[in-house]
Design goal:
Helix content: 55-70%
Number of domains: 1
Strand content: 5-15%
Number of helices: 6
Distance between the termini: 18 Å
Radius of gyration: 20 Å
Order of helices and strands: HHHHEEHH
Length: 147
């Protein structure tokens, strides 16, 4: 009986060390969810701080957006969709990650609108926790403890 308790204690100690890596793997495996959350924020016109993306579009850009039937009341950083499609997850190890963009316009847009255009708001992070980690992490923990 004592041998069984010692075994459980060792597994729990190991779990404490392995948990950040487990979270990171889960996030990496679900990179599309993170990318979708990032894109949804941009489409809503908010940055990673939950603030309105500024500066606002120029008068000319507003006219072009209206002609295309695109939102013009907020900065969405979307014209053709190439910038939004170029989002990618970077990192994930130990539960730490960032969102990047491989579009050639990314550096120019970051210079104009600030580095806060990349990254998740607290609300988006909570969606990630609720929709992914709370749903899938317990099963991984169970598997780790029982195997």
């Amino acid at each position: 009986m004592i041998e069984g308790i010692d075994h459980i204690i060792k597994r729990l100690e190991s779990l404490k060390q392995d948990l950040p890596e487990m979270v990171g793997e889960l996030i990496e495996e679900n990179a599309a969810m993170v990318e979708d959350l990032q894109t949804a924020q941009l489409e809503a016109g908010i940055d990673s701080e939950g603030e309105k993306i500024t500066p606002a579009y120029s008068v000319n850009t507003v006219a072009i957006k209206k002609a295309k039937g695109q939102p013009h009341d907020r900065v969405t950083l979307k014209d053709t969709g190439a910038f939004h499609r170029a989002m990618f997850l970077s990192g994930g190890q130990a539960g730490q990650f960032s969102v990047g963009n491989s579009d050639p316009k990314a550096a120019k847009l970051e210079d104009k609108y600030g580095p806060e255009i990349f990254g998740l708001t607290d609300g988006s992070k909570q969606e990630l926790i609720d929709g992914l980690l709370r749903a899938e992490l317990p099963e991984r923990v169970r598997h780790k403890l029982l195997n």
